[in-house]
Sequence to fold (329 residues):
Amino acid sequence: MVAIAQMGVLSFSSCFPSLSSPRSFNKRTTFAMAAMSDDPVREWILTEGKATQITKISPIGGGCINLASRYDTDAGSFFVKTNRSIGPSMFEGESLGLGAMYETRTIRVPRPFKVGPLPTGGSYIIMEFIEFGFSRGDQSVLGRKLAEMHKAGKSSKGFGFDVDNTIGSTPQINTWTSDWIEFYAEHRLGYQLRLASDQYGDSTIYQRGQRLMKNLAPLFEDIVIEPCLLHGDLWSGNVSSDKNGEPVILDPACYYGHNEAEFGMSWCAGFGGSFYKSYFEVMPKQPGFEKRRDLYMLYHYLNHYNLFGSGYRSSALSIIDDYLRMLKV
Fold:
């Protein structure tokens, strides 16, 4: 059973004492409002979240970046992530991405409710709590629903997103660009290559990567590229299923891009044959798909190199060198 915030119907005011006892009301009200103002998560849940009481707060195993908690209330359950050092911009990007995917009405995502700053520094995001099942769901259903999201989520602004966001903890630049090759070369590969150069002094991967960036056009001949709404960080840890077995995707790094770029994390996503078969029944495979697969993986290998160190360098450099040989540049 999925807990949704809108289940609640009672307002916060119903938990206040009666106005017939002014002294008691003023005292308790002042205390309650002061306590709530120090905790914006609690304040939202007990007002706009339509709960009258929070019955339990349980920590949930989060990632290495944020703390995660489940808030159980008489209006259902909420999922809350907090970060004590990063301001609201990171969660605002996540919220906008979740909201965009939610609005396609295709694949299940947690509905975002509220993002804001914490009084002591940092930020929070409140979203729908989804009770997960015991598997990642049917791969064929996941493939079909993901393709439906790509087909439904279009942009008239080109390639990019309304805000910059993060891929892991790395900034992801989403400046609107009319040309996909230019966008991917500059804002995906180019940004990561500059990070590697700045962080590690890696002139080899930077220079070879720059050569590749300037010669991508032959990989995109005879295809049509439309800006599709992408999850952006689709690996096994960001894919689950609800209690009914329906696929759920979460923790996005959304932007509008070439639909094939969604498979850039396939090296640790576990997508099987049934996934791709169902996907391509909705979004037909375009010529040269196999030639471009590693190009989209390269972005994520470079990001892992920048985030986690030299263990990913050889994979990234190998992909670059393979393309340089293929393209003869």
Q: What stands out?
A: The CA atoms of residues 185 and 213 lie 5 Å apart. The longest helix spans residues 180-200.
